Amino acid sequence: MVGLAVMVYRILIMGLPGSGKTTLSRELVKQLGTGVIWLNADAIREQYNDWDFSESGRLRQASRMRELADASAAKFVIADFVCPIPAMRDIYHAHSVVWVDTIESGRFADTNQIFVAPDHYDFRVTTQDAEPWAKKIVQNLLVGSDNQ
Questions:
Q1: Is the dihedral of CA 41, 83, 137, 148 positive or negative?
Q2: Coil, strand, or helix at residue 46?
Q3: How far apart are CA 21 and CA 128, in angstroms?
Q4: Does pTM surpass 0.85?
């Protein structure tokens, strides 16, 4: 709708376990400075004591991440989680998707089996050097989020 601004700009940092999502997220937080919160999926699962990795548990986690993001007063919310299936990505409904595609397989066989590469992403990170990638992403975010 014309004239309505996005209250919270949701950023999804997704990829297999061990691909570098958390390292990249940490660097993004550092470079964005104030007005940003970071939702790490493992920390959220621990907070809610919810270690259910069934499909319904994964969908519940995506809903929880979306609810926490939308309840935030921050300008940017970085959600760092595997998000292996498209339904989870649909639930979180990110304004920007960063696919950390740096490894062939992660440390969990069940996640590797269900992981579906995203059809849409704004950045595809292909190397594990977070600082330059974060710089590129931040430059794009600062321009893109102002136009939302």
A1: negative
A2: helix
A3: 9
A4: yes
Which CATH number belongs to the domain containing residue 121 in this structure?
Answer: 3.40.50.300
Range of the domain at 35: 9-140
Give pLDDT tens digits along the chain (148 positions). 344 455 899 999 999 999 999 999 999 999 998 899 999 999 999 999 999 999 999 999 999 999 999 999 999 999 999 999 999 999 999 999 999 999 999 999 999 999 999 999 999 999 999 999 999 999 988 875 554 4
Tell me how long the chain is: 148
Q: Would strands 36-40 and 76-80 be described as parallel, antiparallel, or unpaired?
A: parallel
Please, are residues 117 and 87 in contact by the beta-carbon 8 Å criterion? no
85 burial via Cβ count (<10 Å: 0-12, 13-18, 19+): middle
Residues 6+ apart with CB under 8 A from 136: 123
Contact criterion met (CB below 8 Å) for 141 and 32 = yes
Instruction: Provide the number of structural domains found in the chain.
Output: 1
